[in-house]
Amino acid sequence: MSLRFKFFAQYREAVGLAQADLEVPSDIASIEQLLAWLGRHHSDWLAVLKDQDKLIGLNQELVSPQARVSAGDEVAFLPPMTGG
Amino acid sequence: MDRPCYQKTRLQAEDFSLNAELDALAGELGALPAVATFTGRVRPDSGVEELFLEHYPGMTEKALQQIVEQASARWPLDAVVLIHRFGRLKLGEQIVLVITAAAHRKAAYSANAFIMDYLKSRVPLWKQAIGPDTKSWIRATDQDIATLKLWQE
Q1: pLDDT tens digits, B17-40
Q2: Which of A42, A47, A83, B118 suits a disulfide with A14, CB 3.0-4.6 Å?
Q3: Is any Cβ of chain A less than 8 angstroms from the Cβ of B22?
Q4: What is the pLDDT of residues B52-62, one digit of tens each?
Q5: Nearest to B119 by CA among B137, B140, B90, B93
Q6: How far is CA B27 from the centre of its chain?
């Protein structure tokens, strides 16, 4: 299935990308499984994947690692936020 | 009878005017008994000349709206106005405006502080400090995370 990934602020700079569309195995069901798969197949994203403080946006909502992923979803890697 | 809470949320590059927003509110709702306002500006930290505020188009607007709705559900508010800017901002420029209006001051004060505390760690906005020859992303503080937990107890 195809997913769209987005990177912001220091994560965007770390991977050198603002956005990427990627084919991932369709048996990936959750964010947790997706992150594990990315860890094995995208060493270029490790700086972001390894950051314990990262937040995940799924279709523009903050979600937990248990959230379900499906084809066409937008997955965003968000550094801890610093607005206000 | 209770009237619904008037809500206005904006994410914009342009500056805003507290007086213009208060006038607009008065035009819409008449004289309000208790109004709390908070204006945040770019802090003059050493070595910083400008801030760059990055956002996530779509999600940032939604998250701002959600905070306003949470505050309205938690306190009996007559009105909430929340304006946040993005892009490049110079020292001393306005970043954020929160207006909360209620029948009594306590709700107006509490809701205003709640919105600012949530904003700092739950809305996709990231500040980059720009100096004469340096750029660095500002880190979220443990203090901000601890403050947020207080509201969740």
Answers
A1: 999 999 999 999 999 999 999 999
A2: A47
A3: no
A4: 999 999 999 99
A5: B140
A6: 22
- Give the closest-approach CA distance of A38 to chain B in angstroms: 22
State pTM to two decimals. Answer: 0.92
- Contact criterion met (CB below 8 Å) for B129 and B49: no
Both structure tokens of A61? 């909502």
Examine the predicted complex and report whether its ipTM is higher than 0.90: yes
Burial label, B80 (beta-carbon count in 10 A; 0-12, 13-18, 19+): buried
| CA B82, chain centre distance (Å) | 5
CA-based nearest residue in chain A for residue B40: A84
pLDDT of residue B2: 60
Q: Which residues on chain A place their C-beta less than 8 Å from a C-beta of chain B?
A: 6, 8-10, 53, 57, 60-62, 76, 78-84
